[in-house]
């Protein structure tokens, strides 16, 4: 991360989908996160993970990564350091979103 932001500060393509997705996550961080959040069992937090996943990989794959990360964060779920992979495995296809579930569960990039 760079600067004062808690979100991903690396270079990423500013496509409409990515801007919409990261904007939605940022809106959540500025409004609801204070009421709902502050209890994430992972580092980075789920909203930071979602922001970086969408910025790095686009709205569709990043959105699936974020959704499955939030689902893993509940009671009885995983905990600890869970970074967004820099590259996604070739077996992760846009038409098979259920495969994104395995990312971050002990596998390096899916």
UniProtKB/TrEMBL annotation:
<comment type="function">
    <text>Could be involved in insertion of integral membrane proteins into the membrane.</text>
</comment>
<protein>
    <recommendedName>
        <fullName>Putative membrane protein insertion efficiency factor</fullName>
    </recommendedName>
</protein>
<comment type="similarity">
    <text>Belongs to the UPF0161 family.</text>
</comment>
<keyword id="KW-1003">Cell membrane</keyword>
<dbReference type="Pfam" id="PF01809">
    <property type="entry name" value="YidD"/>
</dbReference>
<keyword id="KW-0472">Membrane</keyword>
<dbReference type="InterPro" id="IPR002696">
    <property type="entry name" value="Membr_insert_effic_factor_YidD"/>
</dbReference>
<dbReference type="GO" id="GO:0005886">
    <property type="term" value="C:plasma membrane"/>
</dbReference>
